[in-house]
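re: ur question from the group chat, yeah i did fold both. here u go
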Amino acid sequence: MPANILNLSCYKVLGIRENEHDYHIDIEAVETPTSCPHCQSIHLVGFGRREQMVKDLPMHARHVGLCIDTRRFRCRTCARTFYEALPEIDEKRLMTKRLAQWMGKQAIKRTFASIAEEVGCTEFTVRAVFGDYVNELEKTIRFETPKWMGIDEIHLIKPRGVIANIQNNTLVELLPNRNKDTVARFLYHLEGKERIQYVAMDMWTPSRDAVRAVIPQAEIVVDKFHVVRMANDAMERVRKSLRESLTPKQRRGLMHDRFVLLKRERDLNDKERLNLDGWTKNYPELGEAYRLKEQFFGIYDAKSLDEAQARFIQWQKSIPSEIANAFADIEKAWGNWTMPILNYFDHPVTNAYTESLNSLIRVMDRLGRGYSFDALRAKILFAEGAHKHKLSWSKFERKERRQSEQEFVAMYALPGNFKHFKMGGTFARMTPESDPEPKPYILKSTDSEKPEKNYGVDISTLIRIIENGEL
């Protein structure tokens, strides 16, 4: 009798046939049924057989098919017939459980077509197995709800929503779109949403409305980089409008002007300063646009919310009427989003790190042509080895902790549920009325027994995995 090369103790190998591409292994279950599944009677009699072909893990670069000699039985008590149960076989399809598990894991980092060719099945089957695998992961893998959440956008065929954990530089969800209903539904079903303190976002009204409706306690902070980018866009409008009115010879005199004008003044070298000085003297409107751009960036050097607002008002009054239209969008955005923009100066949280991820997600999209959004989302969120299990400190929270190493500084508290008191000129950590002793970040003896926390997909690790071609 051939050796059990399958490493499945519940089956006995009866014979092996092979050709250039396939192994056909004849097997039968070791244990026979002892009772009727319908009436539990032990009075059974054999009632025929049938052969079933089940796929298993490939071996030696060949497809593996298990030819199972399945026995049929008849119950003498209830007269009903049944086939014996086949252990280790997937309930939904004719393949072993271990093959389905292996295909699911492989599909996270490989194309469906390559797996289908290796196993000897259709790409549709791989897609279905992958869908079941992801559904199981959704049940077992739970990301911690971020206290500092980022809501951003990425274009994968169409705009998608990105939910990030700002404190830990991790991704916790990709949404199919950025509609208010989609964002609100995600937030509504989010466990622990009442602990969210800050939400950083761009100036997208549906996201703001969803946050205010579902987690009103969270402070909305408009991402700094989305605001200052508008100053660059305004200056670009002035530059392009100017170039349209110039002769070809004059345009050559402005060679590389875009590169220089987009740079901060402090970063210009001597040659670039000389060129800029000549351009602004010859074209005063261009010089005014550059000045306004630099002064708008300077608003974010303010030390407080009130100072920032005062700087903006002063900047707004200095806009020349000749180029006012180019900067009208900034004025409108500031008027519509005043407090969320100014919140940055009290709570400097930002989505800057997620911007660097956009190009990498696009690379994944190009590599996975034909993937559905659900498949691409699963490949990103469940990438093996990319999850972060250690809590990180944010930059501005670390800074506040250094001001008083013996105190926990409060960043936010829910009205009515927290109290605060002063110690040594600074605010001590706000704690619940029912729990006067500050407890966060104190390890207990029972912590080792708790399941390991998962803060999402670490962005730097994901970048490394993608660059190494592992995803």
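okk and heres the other one u asked abt
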Amino acid sequence: MAARFATVGNELYTGQRSHPFIQRSRLWFLLAALLVLASATVPLARGGFNLGIEFTGGSEFTISDTANTDVAPGEEAMDEVTDEEAVVTNIAPGTIQVRTGELDEEQTLQAADALQEAYSVGSDQVTSTYIGPVWGEHISEQMLLGLAIFLIMVTLYMALYFRTWKMSVAAIIGLGFVVATTAGIYAATDFEVTPSAIIGFLTILSYALYDTMVVFDKVRENVRGLFDQKDQTFAERVNLAVNQTLVRSLNTSVVGILPVGSILFIGAWLLGAGTLRDIALALFVGIIVGTIATLFVQAPLYGWMRGRDADVVAHAREVLQLREEREIGRVTYSGTPLDADGRVTSFPPLPEPEPDEDDEEPELQIVITGAEGFDEPRGDDGEPPAEASGPSVR
């Protein structure tokens, strides 16, 4: 299996194997637009996101040093006290957290007594706090401010590093796709949106940008000196760059998904730890969506934007015309020529240009004239010298 995987990676790098990331960009754009539309529809259909207590306000109870970490007793105890929906989670070994809507003073005392009885603990082991929605609003404002500063800095950095604003625009649009899709999946799973989830959202932007920088750097390397060669088009060279970094992108994603997936499984299904669950889901989904965005949104979008320039279009037309004259048969999506057996071969030489008529060397002309009409030198006696008589050659 490992040898086969290494062979596939080598074939992708040399161009022998190629996937049409750039050539089918319109299909990827359509699918991406549908995903974004679905991601926007899900929270609207469900009545919004499942916001945590930090954003809506409410009461929070913490039961510490309890031998029973089952969430069922806490849920039953809260059902007897209030009609507000309660979220009971095991946030740490021996610690249970209960979150519900805003309770008055009497309901708070009743809930504390019910939780003491449910988990067989003392009054000093149950603490209650009230969290107002103002704190959540402050977090939201700071998050939006940080996101705006992050996007501005990223745009400027990429424009200076790659010396083109088109890569910056493609990268930012791809990040928007990552955020929208991740938020839609978060809403579909009905997970709570907590400060931990916000941290996860901001973290995945950095990850998605890192993968994009790797791919775009390879794109810049491949298209350097594009117009000095007549073998491959711009789209083929960009597609080759995406295929060459495909294995690296997948390996990076798998390495990131495995530990995050373990945290998500342990936090959500085994421990019920809300903090681990919230941040792990955002990271897990974001890593996958970030990789998809780089391969199917950002790189194809840059290829589409740059490929519409007049110089690129003229070069592609010239390359394809010369390819017919050179009788090149099979070519991969990355512009790599293959022989009849499907192996990589070299491009045949370019046809020699036909010489211009103006550049042809003039033929040597020899004019022979006879003695008649020829002004010959004569001596003092008026007679031509003997050696000067006869025809001359000019």
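fwiw on the second one: The longest strand covers residues 58-63. The two ends are 83 Å apart (CA to CA). idk if thats what u expected
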